Amino acid sequence: MSGSPCAGQSESPLAELERILGCHWKNIEDAHRRTEDTLQQLSKILEGKPGPDTSVIVHGSLGRYECTQGSDLDWTFLVDGEANAGVQDIFIEIKKALFGEARFVELGLQKPGGEGTFGALAFSQPIVLFIGGEDDSNSNTTRRVLLLLEALPVGERRLAFDRVRKNILKRYIDEDRRLLEKKQDNESRRWVPLFLLNDFARYWRTMAVDFAYKQFDRGNDGYALRNIKSGLSRKLLFASGLLACFWCDPIISKNESQEISKQSLIHCLSTFLSLTPLERIALFFTTHLRVSESKFLRENAKDLFCSYDAFLGILNDSDKRNRLKKLMQEEEESDEIFREAWKTRKVFRKAIQDMFLGNESPLRNFSIERGVF
Questions:
Q1: pTM for the full model?
Q2: What is the pLDDT confidence band of residue 3, given thresholds at 50, 70 and 90?
Q3: How far apart are CA 22 and CA 276, in angstroms?
Q4: Residue range(s) defining the domain that contains residue 51
């Protein structure tokens, strides 16, 4: 399986974890390959279109390298520069290029939802500067957090994307006043960036509230599919963000040479977040399984990745996906496809809980002390 290896690694964390566990997650591999093909085709459609100081960003399943049949094209036109009339013209040109050609239909993608968060023009200033407060709308929070957790630039113009991500991380780390401080000799140093962790947690709760709002706004339309996704891909996203914060601590990353500086933490986060959410989780397991023969970690990793692989298999089956999109809430208990998906969700939920809160998990104390209280 191809992937995005960290510096110094010859294979992706997913490929290494497959080898360690003796597993093969075909649906994850197929989704990764489909994403690669789709991104290449989107790059051709957008060739020469984005202007200077801009990037076209994809989110959602494409941003996670989990593209399946019927995935949405969640995208943003990111501007890291001055606002002018020419920017709007470029945005309209890109929108026409994406949705006005037959090639888009051939990709098997769906248009983004009608809430307006995606398929939109976004400027870097509010994304970077408005963290918290009344000006930090749900859309602004979503764009900022997703730029860190599930976003990929399409095409050659990625400088705006890279700059904005770096500036977001710099704000979170520079303004975390007690980060890395050690007041007393017997007090441990705080490596975990709580400003960033709390915003990830806020976004996770926003997604949960948004699920209830969409049920109120849309009724049964797509309810069952959103329900399954909320317990799998949405939960994976938050888990990978929480893990990114814990990864800053050498106890978790096993990086004994970690420098005690905020610049070093920014680099650590940037490198870790350049991986896909599944790769981040896989890197945690491979790192700890290299130094431990823990049966708990092996079984935990198998349950987590096998259930997620089954989830992607359901999404990539057009009949099952369409059934879940159209399923009425009162039909759930008697529907075979929903029961299959719900069972997969339950296994994944238990695996995520064990990963962070299991008695033998290296993350247990971090989750209790930093993630809960």
A1: 0.92
A2: very low
A3: 21
A4: 13-176+188-372
